[in-house]
TrEMBL record:
<protein>
    <recommendedName>
        <fullName>Amidophosphoribosyltransferase</fullName>
        <ecNumber>2.4.2.14</ecNumber>
    </recommendedName>
</protein>
<dbReference type="GO" id="GO:0006189">
    <property type="term" value="P:'de novo' IMP biosynthetic process"/>
</dbReference>
<feature type="binding site">
    <location>
        <position position="469"/>
    </location>
    <ligand>
        <name>[4Fe-4S] cluster</name>
    </ligand>
</feature>
<dbReference type="GO" id="GO:0051539">
    <property type="term" value="F:4 iron, 4 sulfur cluster binding"/>
</dbReference>
<comment type="pathway">
    <text>Purine metabolism; IMP biosynthesis via de novo pathway; N(1)-(5-phospho-D-ribosyl)glycinamide from 5-phospho-alpha-D-ribose 1-diphosphate: step 1/2.</text>
</comment>
<keyword id="KW-0328">Glycosyltransferase</keyword>
<keyword id="KW-0658">Purine biosynthesis</keyword>
<dbReference type="InterPro" id="IPR029055">
    <property type="entry name" value="Ntn_hydrolases_N"/>
</dbReference>
<dbReference type="InterPro" id="IPR000836">
    <property type="entry name" value="PRTase_dom"/>
</dbReference>
<keyword id="KW-0408">Iron</keyword>
<feature type="binding site">
    <location>
        <position position="379"/>
    </location>
    <ligand>
        <name>Mg(2+)</name>
    </ligand>
</feature>
<keyword id="KW-0460">Magnesium</keyword>
<dbReference type="InterPro" id="IPR029057">
    <property type="entry name" value="PRTase-like"/>
</dbReference>
<comment type="function">
    <text>Catalyzes the formation of phosphoribosylamine from phosphoribosylpyrophosphate (PRPP) and glutamine.</text>
</comment>
<dbReference type="InterPro" id="IPR017932">
    <property type="entry name" value="GATase_2_dom"/>
</dbReference>
<keyword id="KW-0411">Iron-sulfur</keyword>
<keyword id="KW-0808">Transferase</keyword>
Length: 516
């Protein structure tokens, strides 16, 4: 679906969890500009990437202030809060939690005091060596390095912030953030597109695989970094280039400095092209919308259907449905109307309303559907509950036949790099054949695009893409399953509280977080 509209991140039954995005980041260095407002609008364009909490940190050259809270960007900030965030550097974040619970303490940017001032950091992605990083932080704290915080964050990101804040050289001299980053970043494994800052400098860093996107843009009077090019567009910045995999960029009054902290081994997430990124975003030089249309074309060639009308599951399936219709010659039409204002709400639907299910989000256009043999195009199937309800709804609305076509292959493996699909056991494609899934959905037929067809549609070489959720080939070694998991640090912190185990929960001691 076109994202950035403040809606839930997938076409779900209320209460159902589909693929969830893993954060949007935005950073700006622009003296003379309203950097907090630029960050607000940048995050607004990235809202689809994380809808649980939002935050902006601003530096005026001598002090960093952080404002963050649970909720959508538009719920967290107003004119007053933005007006109080004055300065020339800002870092913003919209969160979906992957490691660490969805609580205020884990909202970002994370903040730590350093020997030289302070650091604020926002992270898109998910780390796979969290346990190892926690040990490094604990060792750092045991050596008396690193200022502490009373804010008990339990996310992977705070560990990196703590490491950046507490590094020393061999003689024990505290390092600046710029000195610490090339030492710390090579120790971090997993997916990370990070923006961070001290009082005077904006930094951007991307993991060696470049799994999540991160782009650099130029304002008339400054620089911007953001998760997606669409966020540069909204603030009037021109796209300069991507932050390269394994690259660290620093921006201040002396201009832009770049260095490599690791060799680039590009393995960008193919699911960004399928579903995650906005269609008006370009990643690695390829436009996302065009990739999705091409996926639809290839799907039509690979899995034709005898039908009267192609419709999309709005709006995530729309570009692929357009491509399917173009290639098949079957007319494209709107068969479903989406309620654009069903978004993340703090009002829980009652049981009666919940039973309305998919109708809270989608309503069929009966006059269009009645008597037709339909091809319904969607981007992916996770558990299948939404598609099952959709097929039933279309039949009730008079569809003669329902042929489901999916513009990504079956999702069979979990993602450890920032997308929370479901557990492996919950994935409908894990254990069922395509025919069995089609029967389970109640469809007349079901077909997925091939993995090669999806990859070709992106125009990115296969060996430069992560497609592990489809084929199980992870782009890096993973630790044992017990060392992965969303609540790893909460579990360890609670072990600490019981007096067992060691951990980062006791790293220091000053309440560094400031809320205006
Ligand atoms: S496992 Fe799937 S969703 Fe996760 S990074 Fe790889 S391609 Fe993207």
């Amino acid at each position: 679906m076109p994202r950035g509209d403040g809606k839930l991140s997938h076409d779900l039954l209320p209460g159902e969890k589909g693929p969830q995005d893993a954060c949007g980041v935005f950073g700006v260095w622009a003296p003379g500009e309203e950097v907090a407002k630029l960050s607000y609008f940048g995050l607004y364009a990235l809202q689809h990437r994380g809808q649980e909490s939002a935050g902006i940190a601003v530096s005026n050259g001598s002090q960093i202030l952080v404002f963050k809270d649970m909720g959508l960007v538009s719920q967290v900030f107003d004119e007053t809060s933005l007006g109080s965030l004055r300065g020339h550097i800002a870092v913003g974040h919209a969160r979906y939690s992957t490691t660490g619970a969805s609580v205020w303490e884990n909202a970002q940017p994370t903040f730590r005091a350093t020997a030289h001032g302070s650091i604020a950091l926002g992270h898109n992605g998910n780390l796979v060596n969290t346990a190892q990083l926690a040990e490094l932080v604990a060792a750092q704290a045991a050596a008396g390095n690193g200022r502490a915080t009373q804010v008990a964050a339990t996310n992977d990101t705070d560990l990196v912030t703590a490491l950046l804040a507490g590094q020393t050289d061999d003689d024990g001299r505290p390092l600046t953030v710029e000195e610490a980053a090339p030492r710390v970043l090579p120790k971090v494994r997993g997916a990370f597109s990070m923006v961070f800052m001290d009082e005077n400098t904006l930094y951007a860093a991307r993991d060696p695989q470049g799994i999540r996107p991160l782009v650099l843009g130029r304002l008339e009077r400054g620089w911007v970094v953001a998760s997606e090019t669409s966020a540069l567009d909204i603030v009037g910045a021109s796209v300069i280039r991507e932050i390269e995999p394994g690259e660290l960029v620093a921006i201040d009054e002396n201009g832009l400095r770049t260095q490599r902290f690791a060799e680039a081994k590009p393995r960008g997430c193919v699911f960004e092209y399928v579903y995650l990124a906005r269609p008006d975003t370009d990643i690695a030089g390829r436009n996302v919308y065009l990739s999705r249309v091409e996926m639809g074309r290839k799907l039509a060639a690979e899995a034709p259907a005898d039908a009267d009308l192609v419709i999309a599951t709005p709006e995530s399936g729309t570009p692929a449905a357009i491509g399917y219709a173009e290639a098949s010659g079957i007319p494209y039409g709107s068969g479903l109307v989406k309620n654009s204002y069903v978004g993340r709400t703090f009002i829980q639907p009652s049981q009666t309303i919940r039973q309305l299910g998919i109708r809270l989000k989608l309503n069929p256009l009966r006059e269009v559907i009645r008597g037709k043999r339909l091809v319904v195009v969607d981007d992916s199937i996770v558990r299948g509950n939404t598609q099952r309800a959709l097929v039933r709804m279309l039949r009730e609305a008079g569809a003669a036949e329902v042929h489901v076509r999916i513009s990504s292959p079956p999702i069979k493996w979990p993602c450890f790099f920032g997308i929370d699909f479901a557990t492996r056991a919950e994935l409908i494609a894990n254990g069922l054949s395509t025919e069995e899934i089609g029967t389970s959905l109640g469809a007349d037929s079901l077909a997925y695009i091939s993995t090669d067809g999806m990859i070709e549609a992106t125009t990115i070489p296969k060996d430069q893409l992560c497609r592990a959720c489809f084929d199980g080939e992870y782009p890096m070694e993973l630790p044992e399953p017990e060392l992965l998991g969303k609540h790893l640090l909460e579990a360890e912190a609670s072990a600490d509280a019981d007096g067992v185990g060691t951990l980062a929960s006791g790293v220091g001691a000053a309440d560094a977080l400031k809320r205006p």
